[in-house]
Design goal:
Elements lengths: L1 H12 L4 H13 L6 H10 L9 H4 L6 H15 L18 E7 L6 H11 L6 E7 L7 H9 L2 E4 L5 H10 L4 E4 L19 E4 L14 E4 L15 E4 L31 E4 L8 H13 L4 E5 L3 H13 L7 E4 L8
Parallel strand pairs: 1-2, 1-4, 2-3, 4-5, 5-6, 6-7, 8-9, 9-10
Protein name: O-GlcNAc transferase C-terminal domain-containing protein
GO molecular function: transferase activity
InterPro entries: OGT/SEC/SPY_C, TPR-like_helical_dom_sf
């Protein structure tokens, strides 16, 4: 709430402060505050398009328009990545016995990215690949961090390194492929990729939109993440994986529990619709569909993730406005990953 007030004050002082307006809209979306949704939609059509550049991720969850997302990313790159293209590191004359792959992220810890890639790191063929991990996040403890450190050949904590020091370190390792696991998401340091850390640079997992950067060569995706008719709105060459781009770990431990529906305030006999995405990813479009389902399916409930009390209050209010008993929305407290 304090952040919203601050952004509003900033816009009073400087009405054309596009980055502040974009962050304000993102915070309102975190609260599922759709009070002025028509004005918000108008803002989505112009922010980062006809205004100064805005952080691309602030708009990504709010507008399903790949063409405008590409335009926003291009504007962001033009304003924030002004390094002249660096020479591509020379490739070896012959293919090495082990390709050197570098993964760059702030999330080698108890984080959704690590939950997904734990098996990917563990199951690389060590006879063919040599893994480097560059961690620039501030969380440095816990079991998931230890797994990351143990499942790669070389792990570097670079959180305290300047960009120039990180670039020098990575380039000294003569990587064959550099993988950006963050894209334009929170805590990113994607700008270091403009200095060419490897001959091949890939956007993967964290940010499924186009980075619109000449220094990112490929994006890993699947036909759901990037449908073929949307391919034109990506600057990267798309590497389509055969089933899904998301590498869930099939060896993840599952808690042995004896919980019942009552433990989660769920009705014993009700049909349960469920969405555990962060609330800021919910828009009126999806919510309208869900409310129509509740109205059609008698005694059903909608089970959502509880992220903050403002979102809970606003979603209940929106349900009531659509003729649905707000008590049919049930919010789940966060659980440990093993229980989730």
């Amino acid at each position: 709430a304090a952040a919203i007030d601050s952004y509003k004050q900033a816009l009073k002082l400087k009405p054309d402060y596009a980055a502040a307006e974009a962050q304000l809209l993102h915070q309102l979306q975190r609260f599922c505050d759709w009070t002025h949704i028509d004005k918000q939609r108008e803002a989505y059509r112009r922010l980062g398009i006809t205004t100064k550049a805005v952080p691309p991720f602030s708009m990504l969850p709010s507008e399903d328009n790949a063409e405008r997302q590409l335009a926003r990313s291009r504007a962001w790159v033009a304003e924030n990545c002004k390094q002249q293209p660096c020479p591509v590191p020379a490739r070896q004359q012959s293919r090495p016995n082990r390709l050197r792959i570098g993964y760059f992220s702030a999330d080698f810890h108890d984080h959704p990215t690590m939950f997904l890639i734990a098996g990917l790191l563990r199951d690389h063929d060590s006879a063919r690949f040599e893994l480097y991990a560059y961690s620039y996040g501030r969380y440095t403890s816990g079991d998931w961090r230890k797994r990351a450190e143990g499942d790669v050949d070389h792990f570097f904590d670079v959180a305290d390194l300047s960009d120039s020091a990180l670039i020098k370190l990575a380039r000294s390792h003569q990587l064959d492929v550099a993988v950006d696991l963050k894209g334009y998401t929170e805590h990113t340091r994607s700008e270091v990729f403009q200095y060419r850390l490897a001959p091949i640079q890939i956007n993967y997992l964290g940010y499924p939109g186009s980075m619109a950067a000449d220094f990112i060569d490929y994006i890993l995706a699947d036909p759901i993440v990037i449908p073929k008719d949307q391919r034109q709105h990506y600057s990267e060459s798309v590497i389509y994986l055969p089933h899904t781009y998301q590498p869930n770990d099939d060896a993840r431990e599952i808690a042995q529990t004896s919980t019942t529906r009552a433990d989660f305030r769920l009705p014993k006999e009700a049909f349960v619709f469920c969405c555990f995405n962060n609330n800021y990813k919910i828009s009126p479009r999806e919510f309208d569909i869900w409310m129509r389902l509740l109205l059609k399916v008698e005694d059903s409930v909608l089970w959502l993730l509880k992220t903050n009390h403002w979102a809970e209050q606003n979603l209940r209010k929106e349900a009531e406005a659509r003729g649905v008993d707000p008590l049919r929305l049930i919010f789940a407290d966060k659980r440990k990953q093993i229980e989730h």
